[in-house]
Amino acid sequence: MMQPLNAVENPYFQQMIDAYAPNTQPIGRDKVWTKILELEMGIQTNVSEAIWDETVSVTVDQWSSIAKDNYIGITVQWIDQKWSLQSLHAVSTRWYIP
User: Fold this and answer.
1) Distance in angstroms (rounded) separating the CA atoms of residues 88 and 77
2) How far apart are CA 6 and CA 28, in angstroms?
3) Is the Cβ–Cβ distance between 33 and 52 less than 8 Å?
4) In 1-98, where does DSSP find H-type helix?
5) Where are the domains of the chain?
6) Which of 2, 45, 60, 86 has the most CB atoms less than 10 A away?
7) Residue 2 confidence (pLDDT)
8) CA distance 7 to 74
């Protein structure tokens, strides 16, 4: 189950870390967010390089959970220079509709 970034600052989370690795200091949410952004930039660069000279097909799916939360998923597919089907799950996230 996904948790918000501030879960790392929750006292219960810190107690759990202390129980399994007493000398470990968990990183804060700002550091987690910075790492996520760095990874996102790296992924964007890799994807841009992979599909730069390709024709792609984009599929968008939208669905609702039992709790009536809306989600969206985006997939990109293409056939590369070697005639191999390539697929990239670009995003799957909760989608807020005003």
Assistant:
1) 6
2) 8
3) no
4) 11-20, 29-51
5) 1-52, 54-98
6) 86
7) 62
8) 27
User: Between β-strands 85-94 and 57-64, what pairing exists: parallel, antiparallel or unpaired?
Assistant: unpaired
Per-residue pLDDT of the chain (98 residues; tens, 9 = 90+): 567 778 888 889 889 888 988 888 777 878 877 887 787 787 777 777 777 777 888 888 888 888 877 787 888 888 888 899 988 877 677 766 55
- The predicted structure's pLDDT at residue 7: 81
Q: Which pair of tokens denotes residue 71?
A: 């989600």
Reduced to 3 states (helix: H, G, I; strand: E, B; else coil), residue 36 is helix
Measured distance CA(48)–CA(33) in Å, rounded: 22
Q: Comparing C-alpha atoms, which of 57, 60, 63 is closest to residue 78? A: 57
Distance between CA 28 and CA 94 in Å, rounded? 23
Instruction: Give the integer Cα–Cα distance in Å for 92 and 66.
Output: 17
Query: CB of 89 within 8 A of CB of 75?
Result: yes
SS3 78: strand
